[in-house]
Amino acid sequence: MKDIKILIVDDSPFQIALLRDVLTENGFNVVGEAQSLEEAIESIKKEKPNLVTMDMTMPGTDGFECTRAIHKIDKNIKVIVVSAMMDDELIKKAKKTNISGYIQKPVDSEELTLLINRVMGDEELYSELENLYPNIFKESIINLFNRLTKTEVQVIDENNIDKEIHSEGIVVIVGIIGKCSGRMIFDMSFETAKNLVKILLKREAKDTKELLNVVAEIANMFAGNACSMINKNNKVFGLRVAPPTTFHGESMNISRVEVDNDYSAKVKTQFGYLSINIGFKRGESEWMSII
């Protein structure tokens, strides 16, 4: 990651010294420090930092007012609050003030480093994810079927065309959150689902509800395992899956979703075919806090 210039804003010399040590030990370039709003404005104009660590309470002002003043000078400067005070109301207000992250004192060195890298790594991280995720999701579906059914599958018809998807009967959509946001679509026919579930349960599904629940959990494991593999490559991603949403019917079209990068493939299994579609959006990420 490129050199990150950081300004520390805190009214406590002790806290400034602690933060300076943590930041420099982890390879960041601390270009200055400020103990008041006036000093912060002066340092911003002089040092032109990429990121500011911001205390919440300071004489005559607070972190929100100071952040607004900083963004009047340069709206592209990222601000992370580093404060002893932290609750849901403060985080809500921080988001409205265009603060990029929030961490509580005393800071953990690893957590602070991870938070800064997530906040600052937008384009570089997206490019890394763009190169990683198709092969990892492919590996994930192969591994999943091998572990669940002891069978091999073939991933075929791979492409990167973002288009409307025609469902074969059961479709599961899993949202992905973290540094980059996205979604995974998992689709199969009722016949494929029944064949697969019969092997997994060692009996036929009792009803449609049970059938759909099993398919949704397979999709959840597929997406969750893939996200875990991506996080192992770079923990800054911090990807997690949201609860799956399942739709079913004889004929459904899934509208094209606006994503910047899209990977689709068919998966040939002993139980029938299924389709996978994964996409991520540039610049869309979960708001970062350690809470």
From TrEMBL:
Modified residues (4-aspartylphosphate): 55
Record bears the keyword Phosphoprotein: yes
Domain Response regulatory, residue spans: 5-120
Alphabetized UniProt keyword annotations: Chemotaxis, Phosphoprotein
PROSITE patterns the UniProt entry points to: RESPONSE_REGULATORY
Xref: SMART domains: REC
GO biological process, one term: chemotaxis
InterPro entries: Bact_response_regulator, CheC-like_sf, CheX-like_dom, CheY-like_superfamily, Sig_transdc_resp-reg_receiver
Function as written in the Swiss-Prot or TrEMBL entry: May play the central regulatory role in sporulation. It may be an element of the effector pathway responsible for the activation of sporulation genes in response to nutritional stress. Spo0A may act in concert with spo0H (a sigma factor) to control the expression of some genes that are critical to the sporulation process.
PANTHER family: RESPONSE REGULATORY DOMAIN-CONTAINING PROTEIN, STRESS RESPONSE REGULATOR PROTEIN 1
Entry protein name: Stage 0 sporulation protein A homolog
